[in-house]
Amino acid sequence: MMPTYGRLPVTFERGEGVWLWDTEGNKYLDGLGGIAVCVLGHSHPRVTEAISSQAAQLIHTSNLYGIAAQQLLAERLTSLSGMRNVFFGNSGAEANEAALKIARLYGHNRGIGAAEIIVTDGSFHGRTLGTLSATGSAKVHAGFAPLVSGFVRVPFGDLQAIRELVDTRPNVVAILIEPIQGEGGIVIPPDDYLTGIRALCDENEWLMMLDEVQTGMGRTGEWFAWQHADTCPDVMTLAKGLANGVPIGACLARGIAAETLAPGNHGSTFGGSPLACTVADTVLRVLEEDGYVDNAARMGARIVDQMRERLSDDDRVVDIRGKGLMIGIEMSVACGELVSMAMERGLLINVTAERVVRLLPPLNISEDEVDELVERLCGAIRAFHNR
After folding, report:
1. What is the pLDDT of residues 282-331, one digit of tens each?
2. How many Cβ atoms sit within 10 Å of the Cβ of residue 83?
3. Domain identity same for 134 and 181
4. Of 124, 156, 281, 323, which one is the catalytic site residue?
5. 211 in catalytic set
6. Which of 30, 211, 234, 281 is catalytic?
7. What crossing angle do the helices spanning 45-57 and 274-289 adopt, rounded to 10°?
């Protein structure tokens, strides 16, 4: 294996719901959900059945032909989002690459030869050269110069910084942002941020493009995080939880953005396979029929309320924040050690931006499981501070 990950000393062999068992028989509560992927947890019976039955029927043909499951999934996604059409790839990075190509071609069609896209500090959009260049992290950029040009960076959450570009950057054609920054540390912008961006895009003929790879699929207590702001993007990207672990990415568009790509402009060998689309459609139906998007809102509020109450006397806890089941606990010091300390207590978490504990549990987590997660995490945090 190429050493691209600093893997923890554990290997899992089976899962059920929010629980995982390692090869030694130890049981863990999964508070990370495969980094927001396993929205229905592990081994969900309807997901298992969808994989099995579709694999027995047809796994792959090609996008040279019609794919019924792809069309069905596209119809369901556009109905939920109000978007017009979809391009299917295999990952969030591929979905974001499609968005970047839409923006550049949109600019080209308007006679802008060196189109620019506004992006933000602290963002994360993927690890391909295009999405890596859009990402606002010097650590991610290190060693990969020259980066792809055409990106203009502003502070996240700062509408005025975007306004100041109107007269100084005439080649801007789009804005690409995360509604909530995940890898950046669960950073939630001001309430008027997305509506303000929507207004700026409308005034200047820019495309509003939202990276919902981590925030989408009910994670924040709405199907898509922009629905909290009662606005709508021109382009939206999805992946992670879309098929509960089966690789798939989606780039949705509306308006002129939906009319930009033509045959030959973009493609994907594996994107939108019968298998991936059947599973994704099943995930959407389960989330809707069983009320798990609303459950994410309730269980997320339960976690935040309990964590705030139990850690209110700990001045080393800077902030506890989140929307739905996308939660960050910010510490005053680097706390990467908490990952192993929580794992010793049978809890899987993640630390991002050096000081933020990130929780992304499955959306079908129960109240009892939430209480168990809080108990184990608070114990780990207190032990970390005592140490």
Report:
1. 999 999 999 999 999 999 999 999 999 999 999 999 999 999 999 999 99
2. 24
3. yes
4. 124
5. yes
6. 211
7. 150
Which structure tokens are listed for 326? 């996308």
Task: Find the domain containing 268 and state its range.
Answer: 46-289
State the pLDDT confidence band at 230, using cuts at 50, 70 and 90. confident
Sign of the torsion formed by the C-alpha atoms of 229, 202, 256 and 134: negative
Q: Residue 138: which CATH number?
A: 3.40.640.10
Q: Where are the alpha helices (DSSP H) in 211-291?
A: 274-289
CA neighbours closer than 13 Å in the CB half-sphere of residue 152: 19
Residue 240 annotated among the catalytic residues of the structure: yes
Q: Is residue 5 a part of any domain in this protein?
A: no
Q: Which residues contact 314 (CB under 8 A, 6 or more apart)?
A: 381, 382, 385
Eight-state DSSP code of residue 250: E
**pLDDT digits over 233-262, tens only?**
999 999 999 999 999 999 999 999 999 999
Instruction: Read off the pTM.
Output: 0.97
Annotation marks residue 124 as catalytic: yes
Q: What is the pLDDT of residue 138?
A: 93
Active-site pick, 87, 88, 224, 240: 240
One domain, residues 171 and 242: yes
